[in-house]
Amino acid sequence: MVPGSSDLSWDAGFYSSISGMKFEDLNGNSAKDIGEPGLTGWIIKIMSGATEIASTQTDADGAYSFTDIAPGSYTIEEVAQSGWTQSYPATPGTYPLTLVSGVARPTNIDFGNYWSTGLSGMKRHPVWLAELLRAGSVHG
Ligand SMILES: [Ca+2]
Questions:
Q1: Among 11, 47, 49, 131, which residue has the fewest nearby CB atoms (within 10 Å)?
Q2: Order of all β-strands in the sheet with 72-78
Q3: Residues with Cβ < 8 Å from 100, sequence gap 6 or more?
Q4: Strands of 16-24's sheet in order across
Q5: In 3-state terms, what secondary structure has residue 58?
Q6: CA 73–ligand 1 middle distance (angstroms)
Q7: What pLDDT is recorded for position 1?
Q8: CB of 15 closer than 8 Å to CB of 69
């Protein structure tokens, strides 16, 4: 599902692709460490100035990719979610990216966030909580 990708139909040379992943920065150190999981369902966007070129969602492993991107200068960014603080890349948290025809495509456009409120178990696992509520072991 890549809304807007059909807009990339102009003839501008050798189309490119990019990919990366969205991870949960459990220890908040602004780096992807072994064992830190991917985050599913986050929206990653390619912007050209203020114009959205394409967007996609991270998959079950936190991975995402874009294909058929025309050469040009873009900004890659994530859509923030309530309760999360972005820790990677550094402020402003976006990637300036210039895609050149025939040049290797970047595959490490990664984003990291950590959960920034104190209710992590309850809010991060609503399905788990709902199950407990249904089972009567937790009273909401
Ligand atoms: Ca980390």
A1: 11
A2: 51-57, 43-48, 72-78, 95-99
A3: 71
A4: 63-69, 16-24, 111-115, 84-88
A5: coil
A6: 29
A7: 45
A8: yes
User: Could you list the mean pLDDT of each consecutive 10-residue stretch along the chain, which spans 140 residues?
Assistant: 48 76 95 96 97 97 94 95 95 93 86 78 50 56
Query: Is 30 in contact with 88 (CB distance < 8 Å)?
Result: yes
Distance 38 CA to ligand 1 centre (A): 12
The total number of residues shown for the chain amounts to 140
98, part of any domain: yes
Residue 121 sits at φ, ψ, to 5 deg, of -60, -45
Domain of 53?
Answer: 5-135
For residue 79, report the distance from its CA to the centre of ligand 1, in Å.
20
CA of 68 relative to ligand 1 center, distance in Å: 31
CATH for 91: 2.60.40.10
User: Which amino acid, residue 38?
Assistant: G
CA dist., res. 48 & res. 7, Å (int): 13
Has residue 140 been placed in a domain?
no
